[in-house]
Fold this sequence. Notes:
Elements: H1 2-19, H2 21-24, H3 26-32, E1 33-37, E2 60-63, H4 81-100, E3 124-129, E4 138-140, E5 148-157, E6 164-166, E7 192-193, H5 199-202, E8 208-211, E9 221-226, E10 232-245, E11 248-262, E12 271-274, H6 282-290, E13 293-297, E14 305-309, E15 327-330, E16 332-333, E17 341-343, E18 345-350, E19 353-354, E20 366-368, E21 375-377, H7 379-395, E22 411-412, E23 421-422, E24 429-433, E25 435-439, E26 444-446, H8 449-452, E27 453-454, E28 457-458, E29 460-462, E30 470-472, H9 474-477, E31 481-485, E32 490-494
Parallel strand pairs: 5-12, 6-11, 20-30, 21-29
Antiparallel strand pairs: 1-24, 2-14, 3-5, 3-10, 4-5, 6-12, 7-10, 8-9, 9-10, 10-11, 13-14, 13-31, 15-32, 16-17, 17-20, 18-19, 18-25, 22-23, 25-26, 27-28, 31-32
Amino acid sequence: MATSQQAVILSIVVVLLLLSPIARGAGAVRQHYNVVQTSHLEPKSICSDLKVVPPATGTWVPLHRPFGPCSSSKGRAPPSLIEILRWDQVRTECVRRKATGMADDVLNPARPHVVLVQYDYSLHSDFGVGSGYGSSAAIEADGDGDSMILSQTMAIDTTVDVPWIQCVPCPVPQCYPQRNALFDPSRSTTAAAVRCGSPACCSLGSYGNGCSSNSTRNGDCQYLIEYSDDRATAGTYMTDTLTISSSTTVMNFRFGCSHAVRGKFSDQTAGTMSLGGGAQSLLSQTARGLGNAFSYCVPSPSSSGFLSLGGPVTTAINSSSSRSRFATTPLLRNAINPSLYLVRLQGIVVAGRQLRVPPVVFSPGAIMDSSAVITQLPPTAYGALCRAFRSAMTAYQGFGFRFWFFTAYPSRGPSGNLNTCYDFIGFTNVTVPAVSLVFGGGSVVALDPPAVMLQGCLAFAPTPTDLALGFIGNVQTQTHEVLYDVAAGGVGFRRGAC
């Protein structure tokens, strides 16, 4: 009797296998689906080195995700996915208001206030500031005993223009506590305050905050950066030597020397290295010498990436045609805030089929933002993506130790603003529909499974309306080298760069 039952069960399993989509369409699975181990969708606890190491002579710095094993904040408890998504929503809404010229209403009592904890999820890199800095916190500019500089961990932001770091004097709570030693301009032999009335001070425009004295001839230039989320930094506009790499220094680099802040900033960073399109950014200050372009590769959570100035990273692998390997799309500018970089999506492909979304839906454009976590789509496109993704996930089933037969992946409740989520507990492998983004000009960027799903959820979110600006998030661009070729007016994506 037992043998008969086993035979029946075996027969059922064989029939299920033969009738399963995996058995009937192995080629389609390979082409339009990705079979991935569930462990590969989770971050690792060990730091992985760069997949492609840029040359030592290049103008680049390592780039890290916060709270990962490669970052300076390793060992600290990372924020939850809900906290990350909450931070992302607040921040991107602030950038969107800046792009649309909406009045800052942070003091409006009718508007609900969101108080964020003291962390952020921006990408981080280390830069050297100053020279002749005799301090235990200093590092050497290179290995031949040249002048000492102070290492500063800075958040990378492509939506702002003025770089800044905290400087002595900067007492708490007037300033926020930080991991690095505070920069002291009096101990740097090359530091100097920008004078009021100088071209550099006048170039601050709306970031200018008067002078340190009543005399515009003798006073020091003051700056003020106000973020739409009620944060702010203020202090003296300075120049000093910036060390980017062992082979690249920038003399008379202009930056804000912050003596006071308002709001919450991460204690893991000393300030912000700004890469916006304005005249004060790192890109604009180095464009003549290095080239009016930069690129970065957002690493996976347990790896290292890079930030390159002057153009894409050139290695022995891609030196012959470094730019031709990129899928490129036109770079657009925002009429109200030309410092922002925009691109235009024109379609999305799920499991080999392009969504039936009218191109006009994508007409507002999407902001290229190094700090945005997930890609935000117009609600019409987002709804179509979710429906197509759920349908594709239903078509291909999984096998796990909880089940002795193939079964549909169980759905679960939303995580924050991610509402298409699955329970993969018990599954060793999952079959995820391939997703590609189609940009203006027809360039197609294929996303790896970790760029499609974040902790079991489809890693996309809707914008407030179809007319609102979207965002291209770094979850989707991770492991791609993203090239901002401002001189040529294009944005490029190169897969598998870090």
